[in-house]
Every structure is written in structure tokens, then in C-alpha cells.
Amino acid sequence: STPWTETAYALLLALSGYPGTIFTWNKRTGLQVSQDLPFLHPSETSVLNRLSKLGSDYMRFTEFIEQHTGHVHQQEHHMNQQNQTVLHGIYLRAFCTGLDSMLQPYRQALLDLEREFLGDPHLTISHVNYKLDQFQLLFPSVMMVVETIKSQKIHGCQILETVYKHSCGGLPPVRMALEKILAVCHGVMYKQLAAWMLHGLLLDQNEEFFVKQGPSAGGAAANQEEEEEDLGLGGLSGKQLRELQDLRLIEEENMLAPSLQQFSLRTEMLPSYIPIRVAEKILFVGESVQMFENHTHGPSRAGSILKHQEDTFATELHKLKQQPLFSLVDFENLIDRIRSTVAEHLWTLMVEESDLLEQLKIIKDFYLLGRGELYQVFIDLAQHMLKTPPTAVTEHDVNVAFQQAAHKVLLDDDNLLPLLHLTIDYQGKDCKEATGPRDGATPPQDTSPREVPPTGWAALGLTYKVQWPLHILFTPAVLEKYNVVFRYLLSVRRVQSQLQHCWALQMQRKHLKSTQMDAVKWRLRNHMAFLIDNLQYYLQVDVLESQFSQLLQQINSTRDFESIRLAHDHFLSNLLAQSFILLKPVGSLLTCYTLLLKLPFVFLDLMNSSLPRFSTA
């Protein structure tokens, strides 16, 4: 054999990942032709070194594939618990599978060259260079992807984004190869999507998917900074503006009931070619299916949330998986069809079977003081027990008073009243209830010691035990916001009642001689009554009735649950905004008036103590 023949076979071995004496391997520089070989011309050495770069890339590819594939998943998982910097995950293994399939044409080209050399030992280096020239652009570009994944510790769906960005270049061989790798990686995503959207299963042990269990990871530090920052928008602070704009109240706090696990988007894992609106639809469908899968009601009530179309949707997802290129149009159309099926079924279950409109009327009657006569009687019954700081028995006493008030106004619904419960948030209560809150109640936000409320009215709250499946609309976070409005409206109603009581006392004394001080007090009462009466009318008519009518109209005009949730969140946000609870200047003004509104109680004490003296006179 000639030196060139030996060199040719050594070259084929080196290009296959087996270096020797002619082609040596160095971890830093890769494959290189040995120096000072007498039978090689310098120009031949240059061409062979150029070919050796292909062998170097091929060896690094195979090393990367062997390192991240195989039956070592449990070992890798154990290593990752100790060191999160180790690359791992099913998307990485899918990438390695696609990378290995991309190398198959290269391996086939080496086999073809070997056959040609066996048939003609005198083939030249130029022939080898010509046969492998198609890989000279491909391998360095793909190697950039591999090095990016290794250096930046790219994980999970972020691999999809990395491969996609590198596939957007102008070199057709590189684009086609990376698109094939991306198609393999998409296979993993489609499997996770099928499990999540069709069965409510989040198969994501390594936190690679763009849906996660738990609340959204918003920056707590940033939120704290925004909380008291005055943005100059009509006195709105950053936190208040965020509350007005946050139309998905279920993501505010991790306060969900055990029957409704909270899920959110892991946006850093979402590829840029999948819009956030599509990801939110995927999140909604999976949450809804997961809720139904975990629910224990009989099939006659719940049925199939996908209307028994799971097999059809699974087939369509499989068809998308088989497509060589990802089509956002086809992908979003399928997601929309699944979402529409789920949303319509939820609408039917909520509005028709669970009588959502009746539940909203209950919320309006009790949280928004729609049953004004009930709370008028309750205020009279509970005034003596709530005007002092609360104690351990105050909660029991006010619930007894609430039941008595309900009976006095002929509200004897045995099915409704047990679902309502007044709460008193007094100091030390959290310690006693550390084992768990009452069903439907909002868990305490912190365990730090708090000041004793000055009166029982300041600590008063209302809980409502929401029945399945309405708990996905009336979450604890939503009910807590209703409680904010409830306390505010009750305070206005209570002060209005006391001012009216003062007027009744004034009428009892009108035949008696009054002093100049009495005239000042009655003028003040008239001014305060004017303010409170107009505020009460504005809240009940211009805000509550108007917004509630709009909410009912929107519910009756759609068959989509997400539209209902959006309309309800708008309704609650508008209540908070238009009742002046969130606006700082008006809120500060009302705080001052709240201090002034304590004057009627002073008037009452004065009247009650002085009335007998005036009568005897």
C-alpha cells in the first residue's frame, strides 16, 4: 500500500472519531495532522487539517450525545439535586436525539467514501474534500448551538428557543438541519401538551415546561417598591394601579383552596414563537381539566369537560407533531378549538347547572349590602358588642346577632344561612386557628403580631362557603376583595344609621329650648348627613347597581367561561376603583371624614345623658 492509501484510511478513521498516529487528537485544538510527515505536501496538510475540523466537531458531537443520553436518568436527577449546573432533562435528550439523526448523512458519506476507496485506491484528497464539503458550513453552525447550550446551561423549553434562533439564518443546509432537530424537540412539547390539556397532568419533573404549579414568580422586591410609590395618576400608587390592571385576581396571592391547585406560566421557558396569549389558553385548559379530573362528583353532574373529544384532539396534536415545520396558525387553531370546548362546557356548568346568576345575587345581597334591611337590624343588634375591642367570644355573639337579624327580616333560608359566617379578626386568633382556617375563609396573610382593633367593627369580616365548581370564580382572593368592599359599605351604612338616630333625638327635643351649641351640633349633623346620604346613594345606585347590571348583561351575552371570569374581574376592579377605596386623595379625605363620623356616637352619648335632664326641665 502507498503512503496516501494509508493516509486515506487513517483520514476515514479520524473522521469517524478514531484518531491515530497520522491524525492526533488534542482536547483543546481537536484533530490535527501530525507534523513533518515526509510524504505530505504542505498544501495537502492544509486540506487534511481542514477536513480534520469535521472530525473534531463530530467527536465533540458524539461525546455530547453520549454524555446526555443513556440509562442514567436517575443518577442525573440525584446529581442535579446536589448541583443544579449539570445539564439534564428530556428536552436535552430530545435535542441529542435530533443531533444524532443530523449526523446520519455524515456517517453515510464516510461509508460511501470507504466503498469508493475500496474500488479505487487512487482517489485524491480533493475528492474527499468535495464529498464532505456540504458539512463544512453545517458542523460549525450546529457546534455553536451545542456550545451555547453548554456554556449558558440552557434548560427545558429554552432549548427550543435557542435552536429556533439559530435556525433563522440564511444558510439552507444549516436551517434544514436545525429545523429537523427542532421537530424532534417539539415532540416532547406535544407530549407534555397532550398530558396537560387532555388529562390535566403536569408531567414535568425537571421544571422544563412553560406551565408550572404554584403562583407566578413576580418580583416581590419590585412589588414592594411599587406598593407605596405614587405614580402621579390621580393619586394612584403602583400597587393600586397594578390591582386595577390585574384582571386575573386568582394570580394575586397563593390563597387557593386545596381543591383548586394553582398553576401559572413559567414565562422564561416560553419560546418566542409561541405568543403569551396562546400560552394562557393552554394554562386555562389544563387548569380546568385538572380540576375536573380531581373532582369526586359523579359523571352525571360533571361529565367530560372536553365532551369526550379527547381522542380527536389527541389525534390532531399527533398530526401537528408529525409536521416537519412548526405552524403557529395550525397550532393556535387547535388550541382555540380545545379552549372553546372547555370554556363552553364550563359556562354550561356554571350558568345553567350551578345557577351562577343566583350566586351573584347572593354575593350582592350579603357582601354588597343588597339586603339593606338585614344589615339595618344587624347594626342595631350588634352595636353594643362591636363598639369595644373584640374578644374570643365576640365572633360567636355577632353570628348569633346575624341569625336573629335574618329571622326578624324573614330571611329563613335553611340552605343559605349555614354558608355565611361573620368573622372577627382579633389579636391572638391566628394562634388558635393555626391548625387550619374554616372552609371558605381566607388564610391569614402573615403570622406577625398585629395591633388590637379599636372596635369590633374594624375587625368584622364575612365568609361564604362557595360550592363546586363556582370556587374557580369566587376564589379566596376574590372573596377577600369583596370583604374590603363589605367593610367599607357597612361602615358607611352604620354611620348613616347613627346620623338618622341623631335626627330622631333632635325631633324629640325640638319643643325644648336649645342653646347656641345645640344649633352648631345640629348644623354639623345636617352637613354630615348630606354627605353620607349622597355617598350612600352614589355607591348603591351609580356604582353597585350600574356595574352589577353590566355584569349580568355580559354573562347573558356569551357562552364562554373566560369571558365571564374577565367580566367578573372587571366588575370587582370597578367596584374597588369607583367606590374610592383605591384612590389615595379621596381615600385620605374619607379617612378624615371617618374620624369626623365618630362624632354622631358622641352626640348619641350626649343626647342619651342629657335628655332626661332636659325633659324634667
TrEMBL record:
Molecular function GO labels: gamma-tubulin binding; microtubule minus-end binding
One family name in Pfam for this protein: GCP_C_terminal
Gamma tubulin complex component protein N-terminal domain span: 11-353
GO CC annotations, alphabetized: centrosome; gamma-tubulin complex; microtubule; spindle pole
InterPro entries to which the protein is assigned, alphabetical: GCP (IPR007259), GCP_C (IPR040457), GCP_C_sf (IPR042241), GCP_N (IPR041470)
Domain of life: Eukaryota
Membership in a protein family: Belongs to the TUBGCP family.
Name of this protein: Gamma-tubulin complex component
